[in-house]
Amino acid sequence: MEDAKEQSHLKRTLGLPSVLLFGLAYMAPLIVYGTYGVLAKASHDTAALAYLLALVAIAFTALSYGKLARRYPVAGSAYTYTRQTFNAQLGFMIGWATLLDYFFLPMVIWLIGAAYLNSAFPHVPTWIWIVAFIVLTSALNIVGIELAARFNIVLMVVQLAIVALFVALCWHYATAAAGPGGIAMAEPFFKPHVPFAATMAGAAIAAYSYLGFDAVSTLTEETIDPKKNMPRAILWIALIGGAIFVLAAYTMQLAHPGVEFKDADSAAFEVAKMIGGDIFVSVFLAGLILAQFASGISAQASVGRLLYAMGRDQILPRRIFGFAHPKFKTPAINIAIAGIVGLVALKLDVATSTSFINFGAFLAFTAVNLCVIRLHLASRQDAPKGERMGIVGGLIFPLIGAVSDIWLLASLEKTALVLGAIWFVMGLAYLCWITRLFQQAPPEVAI
To answer: Domain Amino acid permease/ SLC12A: where (predicted)?
Structure first.
């Protein structure tokens, strides 16, 4: 009996550095350059400030994730925390909203990669690159190819090296171009003529780069001393990622002030050529595509795994979504479905697609902050003195995080809000059906 209980838990082998590496690799720091042009245009050339504002919301939300990971030291997510703290129905709706991130994230990754390859090889149509990404990535995932941890380490080193070189070249170019008068150091952060609403619209897009800071919460059962290390890891991943994004956007604005690009979807390609010539462009493009490709494999695999879990637990039709390939032992149908959905990228641009998946992310982030507030209000008298959150950590900080996330949600472009609302209503209708008009609790997804 004791052995069975012991086997029900994963082995704790990950220290704080390993968890940090996983989170940063999932975020892919080079993504800051993948969306820079779209963000600069949406924010009226206040990209650095937009990243900073997004970091404020993400940092307070990261604190809430950390508190919940400490309270529930098992593999978790916004879906799990909401279900545990509120009820199964609300948990289902947050899970449904989060499904947006999983389902459409591969599409955005492929779209960004295709945009940059099209800039490098303009005679090859964008749709060919998108289809090539989908076919190759789907084939690798179906046969069960996995990226080992050592490849994540190599990939992280390459990405950070390219970011550091990009920052240095931008700084060198900006100082050389400024001449005797010097550069206006505060210019990227202070533009009095730009409406705050425009910067917030940019921040709503900038938040896309932070997606994945919370992914390490799924490693809780494999982390040494999770009550101590997991909250630290989640916060540090958000802060380190934010520092990289703000610095990269800041130096890009110094080197290329304004929002005039040949193609906003691949603006960093143009800036890279301007500051480093053809050699650096080649290095940058190779690094970006490598990061995008690896990220696409992981994102599509996550979609397949989530849909398989929902099929296995009969939230979705088990015959289709609970199918595992008899030879490769992978959710082949789900992976193919994710690839087919990726074809939607042929009709969308980067701005709309990133805003669309951010709709689900902001709802999930808001729910996590509200979970902390509810726990604080419910247990401030009953909890042992050592486990009480305090009014600052249990109420004020998560309230700031929730308000910031809702503000970012409201700042998304109208098309994304409409599509997100339609998705949410579809989820509500489906919940009504599987619970027989809320007469029973929805099945729990065990991921």
So the answer is: 31-378
